[in-house]
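Good morning C.,

I know you're traveling, so I'll keep this short. The sequence:
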Amino acid sequence: MEPGHVVGEYVVESKLGQGGFGTVFRASHPLIGKLAAIKVLSRKYSSDPEMVARFIDEARAVNQIRHRSIIDIFSFGHLEDGRCYYVMELLDGRPLGDLIEHNGGLPLARAIPILRAIARALDAAHAQGIAHRDLKPDNVFLATQPDGTEYPKLLDFGIAKLMGELTTDPKYKTATGAPIGTPCYMSPEQCRGLAVDHRTDIYAFGCVVYEMLTGRVPFDGEDHLTVMVKQISEEPVPPTQRARETPTLPELPLAVDDVIAWMMRKEPAERPPDLISAIHALEQAALAAGISLVGDERTVSDRFTPLPKRPVAAVEAAPTLLGQQDQPARRSRAWMALAGVTVIAIAVVAIVALARGGDDTEITTAKPTAPQAPAYVLIEIVGPPDGTEVFGPEGPLGRTPTRAQLRHGSTEVQLTLRAEGYLTTVTRVMPDADRRIEVALEKKIEPTPPAAPPIAKPVTKPVAKLPVAKPITKPITKPETTPAIEPDPYGRK
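The tokens, ready to paste straight into the viewer:
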């Protein structure tokens, strides 16, 4: 389309960029001057019912969620030649993937405000029964605001799944058994082509957190299949170890390993119930390590080397594995660094409109007339051996020595402590103020098996020797003989 072409209520001003799925134009409303981006599906995909269904689903999903951290799509239609288009807000800024790649990772204090906004947006989507299914840094756009801070916007719901509902025409949806997503951020169940729900986004969120804090994805490989096999069967190198390998990154608290591992459990049921629980665990890890945090989603100005905004024409479609259709080219950052089609759509030149109803008033609120209770309290735990794992109602709180961060409240909460060689101990604490508690763990006593009775030696009596029978012999006696009577020579008897 050329400048001056009318699309719905908007007039095309210029071409912002082109990717594998379509083209994005800068446009404005001729009467009120509102700037917008128009995303037009390419001719190739306009004749593909499945791609058209995805295109429509993205617009439906975004409008069903209606969250300030999700790009707003406010019009939809067809061009004269039959191609689909939708109109969305035009943002000025950069993709999160560019920031990570440029700086080689982010400190925890810099990452948490961005992650908090993404978590709230995804939790809002999940509350509406929608799973994103393609969360990655290139689908998060850091929109520059008038005060110079950046506000995260979640993009590209093009393969979002309406959980429990068939979207558009079900015969055009990806068949069961065909993986859909981006391998470096796909959950094990997604890699297997199994049914997915919001918990697959929680796993992907863990992968994003890992990459933000280390500058590297949890698993990489020479091809998609290799990465998917690792997602299913391997555990990543602990992020604290990865961070130590990058000289420009500060050391991460050890508790971060536990939080990321929690999100990246192979079994969906073992992951956090929602993403804000994971964020609270990350915040606890930071506060326990003495790291100060920004109070809302507006991120502080970049303290790293300034990242020049790249020309929008250089933005290309990020690879998304949809069955076997997409064949992305190899790229410098493990074939997943460039922004997706939606990133093109919101590239540069305009400032995001902050006032949409009352949703954005929190940015400029009046000073409170009365002191407010703190949102969190710190509980210092003393007594257990170093390295004892501490769990709260929302998940892991770190390892001792630590100061556990709990939501301020007037109801006792339960803490669970686990250490190797000790019995699991449960204690309760009132989170109404910062406090110090002592907890003693009891050592496990391995049951001693009962002593076996001594093996008695068989009592044996010596075998009496039998007398040797001697043959009975009669004494040798001479036979009695009558002495011979000699005749008396004188004739006498």
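Safe travels,
E.
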